[in-house]
Amino acid sequence: MRVHPSTTRQGRLSRRSLQQRGLFHRLLASLFFTLDLGYSLLRLPDERRRYDLVIYVRYLLGSAYLPAGVGRVAYRLGEWFLPEPEVRLFVDCSPEEALRRIAQRGDEREMFETLESLRAIRAACLRSLTPGWLRIDNTLPGRPPLEPVYDAIYHAHEASEAP
Asked: For the stretch 117-145, what's the b/e string if a residue is b when 16 or more beta carbons lie within 10 angstroms of its beta carbon?
């Protein structure tokens, strides 16, 4: 599983920029995020050979973090340019629950980790979902947060392997 921003140099620079404030750091974070994603795409053929299942987090919906007009264009370009995934999952969570989980994490907050930003990003993601996306409600009480995600990935992967 590769999460963006990743642990590569460009991923670390993206994360560091996300922990700052202001337009300059937002632009830097976007630039390094794009470089990080590009690096991941270069590694994709090798990863497909090495692993049965390759998962990229914040692959296409990372465009939701961009200003509205730019984000829509970036999403459309991504649909056209990026490799088509077997499964598209949108792990949904209320902004309030997301903020609670962020606070529990204990790490330094990123520029988008405010209730207002989380609401805007979630709305942009929901507007971007086209047919073929599987939306998982990850706000459900009583289940570990990743359990529904693992279930959906497992069932989708099993279905894609069936004759």
From this structure: ebebbbebbeebeeeebeebebbeeeeee
